[in-house]
Write a structure and sequence with these properties.
The protein is of the alpha/beta class. It has 13 helices and twelve strands.
Amino acid sequence: ALVEKGEYRHFMEKEIHEQPDSVQHTLSEYLDLVSGKAKVQAVDFAAIERIQIIACGTAFYAGQIGKYAFERYAGLPCDVEIASEFRYRHPAVTKGTLAVAVSQSGETADTLAGLTWCKAQGLKTAAVVNVHSSSMAREAEVLWPTHAGPEIGVASTKAFTAQVAALLSLAVAAGVARGRIDAAQETELVKALFEAPRLISEALQMDAGIHALTLDLAKARDVLFLGRGSMFPLAMEGALKLKEISYIHAEGYAAGELKHGPIALIDEATPTVALAPLDDIFEKTASNLQEVAARGGPVIMIAPEKAPDPHGAGIRRVSAPDCPALIAPLVYAVPVQLLAYYTAVQKGTDVDQPRNLAKSVTVE
Ligand code: G6P
């Protein structure tokens, strides 16, 4: 069926706004809202020793968010690697490893080759894919679908949050299967995940505030994104999104690495975007922002209203919904995407078809 933009100016804008639905639909694949339980999976998480995620581009960042969740909630060691490296570097994989390809299209050449290689090594394989009839869906033993629907914009948005929703849900399922999460915690985590669609809708209300910030951001030559915990991969995804559609150079860094290099770049012309949910490491991120502000760098701090003020000249705040730590990457993905989107609109680039990029890289 032909997909149309309807009331939206670009497919990307439409797809950003579809996320409450696409996330809800994807969560329902893995979790049961009524019982508050994670559905039992075809993979026996108690029997595996390690997860190896392979992916490219935005899916790689979704994979890194997945890693943090598999380790934190399931005590399951998880490695994530860019497929083009993994497939050629002769990695040492062990028998108890589950290989998981993460891909919107299910056709990315490097990811597919990595998956095929793992299968040939005798590993168990699974694929988190949005196109359910794709090559990866057929190649993997276990299909873990995302339900984002067709994504037209070259820069991935709703497919990313659907991948994150699937991986977070699977991490909870793995935690239950491995005895790391008891029944009460399971109910609480499942409930938290099902709050994501509503909180994503709330985050979409940040629209006007983010739009106002991009008037300045569009003039920047370089932008730094900072975050800790699962906000670190999201910072890298934010930088990628901005690069892809606005052609502004951007880098995503773990906030704790600021001192080890990127702080040398800070000046009044280099904005820093901080993803700062009110979690157990908020204060650490806030002190990094003071360091940036003290060096004259403009800061955009995305944090809930009730988060304390880091007190620094030049720190502008945008309020994000307060949310449980588990779902912060789903909720904070929205301001990150809107920031890239409005900056690109400001610059007048071809948002849905950025120069030199392809929706799916099926040849090396
Ligand atoms: C291309 C697209 C990206 C996407 C990446 C991986 O670079 O432009 O948006 O993240 O490929 O694609 P996949 O279909 O494997 O998720």
